[in-house]
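Notebook B, p. 112. Complex prediction, attempt 2.
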Amino acid sequence: MTSCLDTDTEVSEVVDSAMAEVIGMMGSDPIERIESSRESFGNESTEKDSQISVIMSLSGEKKVSICICLAKQAAMLWARNLIDHETEEIDQTVVDAVGELGNMVVGSAKGRLGGTGLSMSLPSVIRTGLGSMEIPSGIDPLRTRFEFGGHDVFTMISVSG
Amino acid sequence: MKVLLVDDSGVMRKIIARNLNSLWIDDVVEAADGVEALEAFGDGEGIDLVVTDWNMPNMNGLDLVKTIRKNGHKVPIMMVTTESEREQVLAAIQAGVNDYLVKPFDQDMLTMKLERVLPKPSNA
């Protein structure tokens, strides 16, 4: 199977499907795709711990950067769904759960993209949202907004090479 | 029975350990990468099953499997990983894994595979 990394739109569709699969299989609350845009959605936070993000990459013929950003309540809901973890704050278990979400979503997307020529990075988790991220010139990511249990989840995808 | 559980994700280790505890396994030794796993494995004495991830820092799961088999150990090994491509699965089987489960997984599927790869004690 050849790799399909021509556009960020194609990659985004694959990541969308992977998100639905992962959250559907490992959690109990459904996730719903709302909209995609090249522009900011306007509710991306800069405040520490109001959102939490996992960043990963796929490398091969092209390079893909994938960021999944969860609102604090979405991250805690994910940790609760995944391992029955109850918390009022973003703690290490929530950080681990978000990292594992990135791992499973990007891993699943890699398989769908015909990924034997692709290598996947280890996840990095940062306790901030898309509002704190700066995009270097020349990169024009595609953003998608989801709703998970009534809370925001965003993806931001860039393809280069 | 004792299981060596290897994954750099603490959350994934919790999920799999919970499944193991729901069966007849109450002794689970955890490691966060292949290097820690080899230290915990030692000469393999008393280890009835190894469950390992693939992508981990320091030493990945495939290299861990190859090292265990190269040293002559026949302990059952199950790989639980996001790597799903045919070539990856074949590489793992050729390295010596006995079973393979792709993440994300259904919990019932994990339990079924663990039951199949681990011999049931006579009093379970």
